[in-house]
Amino acid sequence: MPGQGPTGNTRNPGLRCVCQNLQKRYRRTDVLKGCDLILSAGETVGLVGENGSGKTTLVKTLLGFVRPSGGTAWVSSSVGYSPQENYLNRRLTVAEHFHLMRRLNGDRRSADAGWRESVIDRLKLRSVLSTRIDRLSGGTYQKVKFATAVLQLPEVVILDEPTDGFDWAMYLVFWEIMDEMRRRGISSLVISHFLYDRQKFDRIVEMREGRCENAA
Amino acid sequence: MRTLRETAETSAGIFLLSAREAWRNRAGFLLMVAIPAIFLGAVELTAGEGYVPVKLFFLEETLQVILTVRHVCMVFGAAGVCGFLSAYYALILFHQDFDYFRFCAFSGMTRAGFLAGRFGFFLLVVTILAAATTLLASSLVHVNDPAAMFAGFVLLGLIYGAIGGIVGMVSRDFLVAFLCVAILADIDAAWLQNPVYYTAGQELGIIRWLPAFYPCQQIFAAAFTVDLNYLALMGSGAYGTVLLSILLGVIGLRLAGFRGRKRRHDTVDPLIKSIVEIEKERER
Questions:
Q1: Nearest-angstrom CA–CA distance, A123 and A131
Q2: Quick one: pLDDT at residue B266?
Q3: Any long-range contacts for B16-19 (C-beta under 8 Å, 24+ apart)?
Q4: Quick check: B49 pLDDT over 90?
Q5: Which comes out higher in pLDDT, residue B78 or B262?
Q6: Which of A29, A2, A31, A28 is nearest to A14 (CA)?
Q7: Residues above pLDDT 70, as percent of chain A
Q8: Does B124 have pLDDT greater than 60?
Q9: How far, in Å, CA of B181 to CA of B187, rounded?
């Protein structure tokens, strides 16, 4: 069935994200020279490329943080995003941050409470819920960013270098959560310099000279 | 109706969150003690009891009063304290962690709700600072009209707060922004507006165009006379309105991003375009 994930899903089949001929020019430098990317429901796609190849610019343009110079970008309005930068409000506790995000995203699905609790437990975040964000270690900070993107069970999750700072056990937990999301029909775009476990992805797209190419 | 309710809820949430952030900002509390102690302590230790003439500009007349240097500098020091601390708190509210609020806007926070909540808390901070400064100044020197002086401090706080917020929005680096605010407050509120300086100043035209001029005039008029200074009130109101509007506009633009604005479809394959339209329709 078109758009259905490899393991089947219960959500809306169809597209989650489309960009076509997406271009971005910073002064005299063409960072994106016409990127085409389609993300279907339930698909897990890896986006790789060298440093400065335009991966983060592609995502920021796709999400609307950066205005494109040309082309089009569309992404489902139900999107979870974990940026590469450290953006979290340093004076809030982890629980306050999660609470705010839940309110902003609309706390409408009561069934999601179980999922939230399970993600918090699996990422071992329960013990730091009352800790202020500026007092977290680098790895825990990264886990909070990842949890922020996935806690609300959006239709599409975009993760920029999500496993930086994870130890091996947490890396395995990360994939456990990603696999469960895939089973629920959630699409994921995972950005990295390089990707281990290529079999975990449905597709790998490589950014090369400002263009997206399907990697072998 | 739902949007209005959402905006009100967001606004209340952001107000409480701002209060929490301010409470946890220990440096702010330290500055609230240190700045008045340094500014007013320096006046207390160094200012003499000699008399100086001070010019006050009213709508229809210019008044010259004779006061002691200590009296003048104490009120002027209090104005510097209020201006500097307001600018500092605006910097904290509108600069630090702003990327977080951009992320919140991306996650569904309404801009109007954010602006209402954040500005509401900023107004509260300015009011508290103005009240504390009025009490402090009144306890150190005789003040003729504390209520009018309080109004002057509020106006000064709003003007310098708006400047602090704008600098914070423009600068990416907190230290650079903090330095700019300190220099601006030093040159304007803490030097040029000193009545001892400007009364004998060679070119008053320049001093009169500076943002701290009108609120400082209001503060001095309230402290040393029994008359309301309408010129100072109107001037401060105009400056405050313009600067706060600029701050609101800059914040609104930075929060907006590209999301929600018109996308370019001119180069898109018609098939993809129609698929996207179908998906959008399904979302609606």
A1: 15
A2: 41
A3: B17/A92, B17/A96, B17/A100, B17/B117, B18/B93, B18/B117, B18/B118, B18/B121, B18/B122, B19/B121
A4: no
A5: B78
A6: A2
A7: 89
A8: yes
A9: 10
Chain A residues with CB inside 8 Å of B100's CB? Answer: 87-89
**Residues in a beta bridge with A47:** A191, A205
Q: Give the residue on A whose Cα is nearest the Cα of B273.
A: A72
Q: Is B97 on the interface with A (CB under 8 A)?
A: yes
CA atoms of B146 and B164, how far apart (whole Å): 26
When scoring B96, B253, B268 by the number of chain A Cβ atoms within 10 A, the one with the most, hence best to mutate, is B268
What is the 3-class SS of chain A, one letter each residue?
A: CCCCCCCCCCCCCCEEEEEEEEEEEECCEEEEEEEEEEEECCCEEEEEECCCCCHHHHHHHHHCCCCCCEEEEEECCCEEEECCCCCCCCCCEHHHHHHHHHHHHCCCCCCHHHHHHHHHHHCCCHHHCCCEHHHCCHHHHHHHHHHHHHCCCCCEEEEECCCCCCCHHHHHHHHHHHHHHHHCCCEEEEEECCCCCHHHCCEEEEEECCEEEECC
Tell me the pLDDT tens digit for each residue of B183-206. Answer: 887 788 777 887 777 777 766 778
Q: What pLDDT sits at residue A94?
A: 96
Please tell me the pTM assigned to this model. 0.82
Mean pLDDT on B256-276:
53
Calculate the alpha carbon distances from A69 to A27, A31, A37, A62, A198 in Å.
Answer: 11, 10, 17, 12, 32
Residue B264 with chain A: CB contacts under 8 Å: 68, 70-72
**Residue A82 in this model has a pLDDT that exceeds 80:** yes
Query: In one letter, which amino acid is A151?
Result: L
The pLDDT-based confidence of B269 (bands split at 50, 70, 90) is low
* Interface pTM, i.e. ipTM: 0.79
What are the structure tokens assigned to B235, written together? Answer: 């001037």
Question: Which residues of chain B are within 8 Å of residue A101 when distances are taken between CB atoms?
Answer: 104, 107
Amino acid B155: pLDDT:
94
Name which of A16, A20, A23, A35 to mutate to probe chain B: the one with the most chain B Cβ atoms within 10 A of its Cβ. A20
Mean pLDDT on A93-113: 78
Residue A198 one-letter amino acid: R
For B210, left (φ over 0), alpha (ψ -120 to 50), or beta? beta
Reply yes or no on whether the pLDDT at A205 is more than 50: yes
B108 pLDDT exceeds 90? no
Dmax over CA atoms of chain B, in Å, equals: 85
Structure tokens at B249: 């506009």
Q: Does the pLDDT at position B95 exceed 90? A: no
Q: What are the residues facing A203 on neighbouring strands? A: A45
